[in-house]
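Continuing the series of single-chain predictions for the mutant panel. This is the parent chain; the variants come on the following pages.
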Amino acid sequence: MLRDGAASLADDELLALLIASGRPGRDARRMAHDLLVSLGGLRALGRADGSQLAALGPATRARVLAAAELGRRMVSADADAEPLDTPEAAARALAPRLAHLEREAVVVALLDRKQRLIAVTGLYRGNVSGTSVRIGELFSEAVRRNAAGVLLAHNHPSGDPEPSADDVRTTREAVAAGRLLGIPVVDHLVIGAGGRWVSLKRRGQLGG
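Parent structure:
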């Protein structure tokens, strides 16, 4: 790897470096290969939790989970410096935080007056409907940190980013609340699989 670069290695070779040591009769690359096959490939590895990596020892399991999370954060960091003033820019910054999750979750991107990212906060697990996400909670950090606006995003674990009726209703409630607080909701992205996403702003579904 040091001679030819990390890009020259196959997926199982990269994973073998994290596994480091094999077991009698199974070297690290064989373990890596078998793990990728059992999970269903590299994308599934990125979505795996600790219980799905039980074949690995605790220290190895921690390294693999840390590497996957670090990779997601690196992808997000590339986009964090640009203004999130288009749905495409917002998707580049936020999709890596959500697309791998197997449960629905909501994040709130706090923006300054130039729509640059201040922070991403408020990871809510469950459904995006108002019954499980209180509208006020979406703005608590924005108020505390004097954000000029917020951008909402949540994932659809099914992979289909088409907004539901609850998505649209909750978005419009959030837009109305933001208007009262003086903190506009600039968009709401629904993140699916395979790089697919939907912008409710572009769809004209933000309301008011």
